[in-house]
């Protein structure tokens, strides 16, 4: 997909070199909690899929509603099953 965000930005590719992303902002107001957030996410994803290896979405992604009108982007709800 071609986009102003860069080639392949809309596809989950865990091998993509995306070290220069701005998810934590940039410059003088770059996120101060970044090291904590990174560590928490490593622990969460490392633990979650080990504890619940069958965890999966319980609804088709086309039915998941995204918060396109909010300051913080995300989903309203994500039904899961295991
Ligand atoms: C995945 C989790 C997180 C994301 C994606 C995130 C993202 C961001 C972003 C984009 C900014 C810059 C906002 C701007 O430009 O005005 C920011 C700022 C900030 N974040 Fe986070 N953040 C996360 C977690 C945390 C945590 C866990 C803490 C504290 C424990 C934290 C504390 C802060 C603070 C204090 C600022 C303001 C820095 C400043 O204005 O100088 N953040 N964050």
Q: What are the salient characteristics of this protein?
A:
82 residues; mainly alpha; 2 domains; two-stranded antiparallel ribbon; 1 helix; 2 strands; binds protoporphyrin IX containing FE
Description:
The chain is mainly alpha-helical and 82 residues long. It has 2 domains: 1-51, no CATH class; 55-82, no CATH class. It contains 1 helix and 2 strands; from the N terminus they run αββ. Strands 1-2 form a two-stranded antiparallel ribbon. Protoporphyrin IX containing FE (HEM) is lined by residues 23-25, 29, 31-33, 36-37.
What's the helix-strand series? HEE
Strand order of the largest sheet: 1-2
Helix content: 10-25%
Structural category: mainly alpha
Major β-sheet, in short?
A: 2 strands, antiparallel
How far the N terminus sits from the C terminus, by CA atoms, comes to 32 Å
Backbone CA Rg:
16 Å
Beta-strand fraction estimate:
under 5%
Query: Whole-number average pLDDT?
Result: 87
Task: Enumerate the distinct ligands.
Answer: protoporphyrin IX containing FE
Work out the count of structural domains.
2
Discrete helix count: 1
Shape: globular
The tally of beta strands, per DSSP, is 2
